[in-house]
Amino acid sequence: EVFALPPLRCELSQVRDVLSALLHTIVFARALGCCAPRDARCERVDVHYVACGDGAVDGKIEEKINALVRWALKTGGGEADVAVSFYERERDKP
């Protein structure tokens, strides 16, 4: 199943906040099992969101955001597509 959001436009200075809020919210909503929710706040826009509170998950999200921000700074911005994919492992048949 594929869900696509309409294009979201923002200033380069807001990219980090926008992606953090979106990606952390999506991952939190999809979290399997126990997670310790953590409140988070964007630095440049007045938005609060909930994140998983898992250091490994937070680190991976921040790594990807940093890569996109570096690309945007190097190329002068423009448009970028962001895709989030979730995969389910097939259960072994008895």
From TrEMBL:
InterPro entries according to UniProt: ATG101
Listed under GO cellular component are: Atg1/ULK1 kinase complex; phagophore assembly site
Q: Which residues form a coiled coil?
A: none
Q: Which UniProt keywords apply?
A: Autophagy
Give GO MF terms, alphabetically. Answer: protein kinase binding
- Please provide an example of a Pfam family that matches this protein in its UniProt record: ATG101
The keyword Transcription regulation is assigned to this record: no
Q: Name one GO biological process term.
A: autophagosome assembly
> What family is this?
Belongs to the ATG101 family.
Protein name as annotated: Autophagy-related protein 101
Print the organism lineage: Eukaryota, Viridiplantae, Chlorophyta, Mamiellophyceae, Mamiellales
